[in-house]
Protein 1
Amino acid sequence: MRIIAGRHRGRRLAAPAGAATRPTADRVRQALFDMLWHAPWGGRERVEGATVLDAFAGTGALGLEALSRGADRASFLETDRAALAALRANIAACREEARCTVLAADATRPPRAAAPCGLVFLDPPYAEGLMTSALAALGAAGWIAPGALVCAEYPAAAAEPPPGFTLLAERAHGAARLLVLQPG
């Protein structure tokens, strides 16, 4: 697993051993960022200069990819200790400590946001059905800015947009289905 594009292009990312963390594959991240940059509702300005939230961060690949492509800041929410260690190592390897905040927090019960984020990534464990409750909790805690783009990774078989969000795009990639949503 590596950073696909931008100033950290080619940087290898550490991942914890075992199946507890399921990093987003390189090709899926590439497809997601291609959508973000080239869709009529997207554009480079949706990433460049953005404040990003990577919830259920795991290795931090999505947030670090956004930073590599020009985002200003990224916050990461993760609870697994092994994933937190890998996440912190990846941030240090990219020398992005000054632009990152790592919170050992559950995305379904997040702390209050310091600032709302215009770009939100969610990749919860597939089997636990946490997407809808996480989006509601993150919205209530002030993490999701009005007009934000929310990039959600679902299992391929279950990809209904949650209530309160408009579906902007949807793409299947193997066992994953990417949904790009907007609140409201």
Protein 2
Amino acid sequence: MTFSIEQLLPGTQRALLHRIATAQSEGRAPSLVAAVQRQGQTVWSGSRSCVDGHAPDADTQFRIGSLTKTFTAVLVLRLRDEGLLDLDDPLEKHLPGTGVGGVTIHQLLGHSAGLGAESPAPWWERTPGTLRPELADVLGEQTRMHRPGHRHHYSNPGYTLLGALVEKVRGASWAEVLRDEILEPLGMHRTSPHPRSPHAGGWAVHPWADVMLPEPAEDLGLMAPAGQLWSTTGDLLRFAALLAEGDDRVLCAASVEQMREPSAPTESGDWQSSYGLGLQLVRSGSRTLFGHTGSLPGFLAALWISIEDDVAAVALTNTTSGPMIGGVAADLVDIVAEAEPRIPEPWCPLPEADAELLALTGPWYWGTRPNVLRMAPDGGLELGPLQGDGRGARFTARPDGTWIGLDGYYAGETLHVVRNGDGSVNHLDLGSFVFTREPYDPAAAVPGGVDEGGWRGLEG
């Protein structure tokens, strides 16, 4: 059962409008457009402009910069899901001769391949892509800055390599593959490598005077998979729905969920942000957001999604610097989530109960620490501390009767249900840890045994 989408309350709408109006005014942006989505439907959109009667709408294209990387990552995950490559494959296996050695596809997706942040001069964002006709021109002589896999170091050339990988495996241009495999299936008809009217022009605003300078809109050539795209708030919210729940026409829910998992160590002391596979992960107040920001001369963009609140927000502006657009989009999520919290779905019992699984639920003790095992709505199991913080995980069944951990401390660990000769359960074995029905149950196979004197008081 789901609840119908209702228009946001007037107070919420005014708070959203106030936020973008403040951003446009204080950030001195020629124009700014934003939109919010819940349950896959747009529930609010708004815009501000310095020219009366020319405010952008949900159909106006802006350049989205590095938000393009998320699209490229989806294309690579599709290749993996089709069995055409493995994320642990070295790039050389599929795209030989790049000179980057054995860096893996996974490392490129998560910016942990150790490659440089930018291409060699001249500044690639303001010069024609024809100046870098070959991958060697994008990578330069110093292809590695850091040891692969040991730290996050954002790399635009890394996504050029991923775009070239897509082209090599598919046998078509990156733009053609993008159109056929993402844009057309999702109905994103206003997203394109080059601008289509109506679209905003990019501007640089003087830092100390209220005057502007037009920015060039270059075709980035080989760098396109890192930042070429133009899009609209309407289209980006369609893309947000894919990133939130998956869409079997494009990328399944399990692969989308994998994109949201941290992929590499963050900078020392930086616990507020991380990077998955083509997705940025940030903490905004009490919630976790995922999405991506983007910038190119003349444009700033941001898309953030909160799974817990079922809210997505996008903000686009046509200025090189000014509004902190990532913060604007995050604030839009917060405004809706705080003012109109998500109404949970009604509780419903399972359609049927597995008696054997039901018998496993309830308290289990690791030594003397009480834990509880619950049946999950999806037919899996959930283990966690009975009270307070502690180790926990979700588990899914394997064909051999064991269970595999999906997350938390026990991710990837195997849970065995160890039975007595008569079929009754003796204990649970989780990565060698023994969980028993009673604290140090003498009838269970507790490592080291249980003292024969049993439990006793101080003078026992």
Protein 3
Amino acid sequence: MRIGIKPNLVAPMEAYWGGTTHPEVVAGIVEYLQEKGFSNLVIMEGSWVGDKTSESYEVCGFKSLCEKYNVPFLDMQKEKGAPVQCGDMTLNICKSVLDLDFLINVPVLKGHCQTKITCALKNMKGLLPNSEKRRFHALGLHDPIAHLGLAIHQDFIMVDNICGDLDFEDGGNPVEMNRVLAAVDPVLMDAYVCDMMYYQPEEVPYITKAAALGVGCADIRQAEIRALDGNPGAPIPKSRKVVELADAVEEVESCSACYGNLIPALDRLKQEGLLSNLTTRISIGQGYRNQKGLLGIGHCTRSFTCHLKGCPPTEEEIYEFLKSYITET
């Protein structure tokens, strides 16, 4: 039996930063499986567009993990995709994923600047080639994420809720919770996470869409919840920096890395008292290709009067660019 383990290594940031899976959680899974006699294990992941999986693999502690337990690591950014029919949508899935007999998903419970939350369902996006990740944003994210659940079956989910960032996908504002969650239904898991983070599943459309496609159940009243320590733990605080910061942005089909670098840059400007002086809304995303405008971020807005090049530009580049724009205007 070939068993795949899928952590979240979105960017080269250590887990304490709140954006990536703790290697200790995956080590526990590997040790358990090897003790039970399973030897054909593989860890697979592809970082978001703009960062290299090879760097995340090392910085996040997975290189040493794989060497210690003699488990191969597959970089999905280096793989070609194969078309898979998912209901009425065709998606390109990395070929190695299609050869698995059993998949263990190890996402981080955290916020997301475009989809509000990211957990079990969206973590499968790391098993796509970069070109398909970009296409997901052009398709609107929610529909393809929901359909992705038809292409990649998750057999077991172990959610890292140790210190996920409740606002930013790549971390930076970790919230210590010190627990893990387990499930076999990714839709029910994500619906439960919505409840923990004070959202309704309907506010994260890919969850209800996935349920409608038959991927799983979105009604948490159907969940059987068991807390191993007898206490489900403290509630997640209502941290929502993204909501306020997003008011400064006009976003159309932007990629996660580009938008994900913009939001923390805006947060830095806010902390310095500069964001309130920005009177022009910032355009970002593939929907602005070949369009005219005033202020844009990224390669897709290269026809704008003022734009920052890069695909994606870094958080630091965005911060310096917008700081100069604000002070000069």
Protein 4
Amino acid sequence: MTKKRYIFLVLILGMLIALSPFSIDMYLPAFGDIAKSLHSTTGRVELSLSSYFIGLAFGQLIYGPLMDRFGRKVPLYFGLCLYIIASVGCFLSSSVDMLITMRLFQALGGCAAQVACIAMVRDLFPVKDIAKVYALLFVVLGASPLLAPTAGSYLTLAFGWQAVFVVLLAISVIVLLASFFFLPESYKPDRSYSLKPGPIVKSFLTVIRHPQFYTYAISGSVAFCSLFSYVAGSPLVFMDVFGLGKKEFGWVFAGIAVGFIGAGQVNTQLLKRFKSEQIIAVSAIGQVIFSVVFLTGALNGWFGLWSTIAMVFVVLFFVGLTNPNTSALSMAPFPRNAGVASALLGAMQLGLGALSSSAMGLFSGRSAVPLATIMAVSAALASFVLFIGRRNIVQPVESETPAGAPVH
């Protein structure tokens, strides 16, 4: 693969994976305006974020088998079209309940982009390059919050909260056109792949029983809860507790996202000298240490605005180091059923993310303690799963497995 084609493919895949973070982050500064416009509360509006996470998690379990049966692009087109229709519904929402429902369908469509992206990386690149490609894609994930909440705050101030969904609609149309004209089909339809419930369940069980998959997928997904709790809780912590306005919140959110971007760049360099397993182990320990410090400081009232920003920044930096590597090692053993593996990985991340974001909405008070608690608990559990699960991995899959070769 030429360098030019390599960069081009990563750019298109980056557009796919950026759709969800834009959908999540862009409307966060508008929570208060949405609540006021729809005669509701910020807590109720937060449920539209939880419904989006639930839709992402559930939808991926549907698209995984479909992409292994029909190829990657046809289910992708269907999902993007559903996202476009749901975006119109969000724009027209006249109640919070309607917005919550439309966000669910928006997620059910948009998750096709994420499943296709993760599976296509496994299809198009050798296993030895997967972690590097994921690191580049996570730079996109980190860059998205630099733009999304800031743009959302200005859009809301200038045109009202509905303008956010107009922009999301336009982005999804661009992604659909780019996928149709420029993205190659990376996996031929497999007519032998059954869509009956029994074989689908068996396929999922085959993947989830693999020690390398469940170790890195579960530990990475639990660690990723820190990000979801931050996304859901950041308006409360920074706008309600510390009194930031929409513009200031957008810039703080963007600044913390630099941690993700930095993590992606650092990870790319570290992979030249260290294995993914080594990076994950050090990152997991770092996440535990700093999240516990954050929780201790929050409980004792040690942290003001800037120290809270610093602690969240560092914790999410370690999440940014961990996730590309756990994703790569989770996907590595599955050259054939990458769609199912991608779906399970995404469902774990987003299902746990929905729980953590819901917890922020249910238990948050006027302090950073709930956010720090979820970050500390998720870091500790992720490390426990990682170091226990690694004992069951007899022979890690780190190099290319020929297509069609059995995975034991």
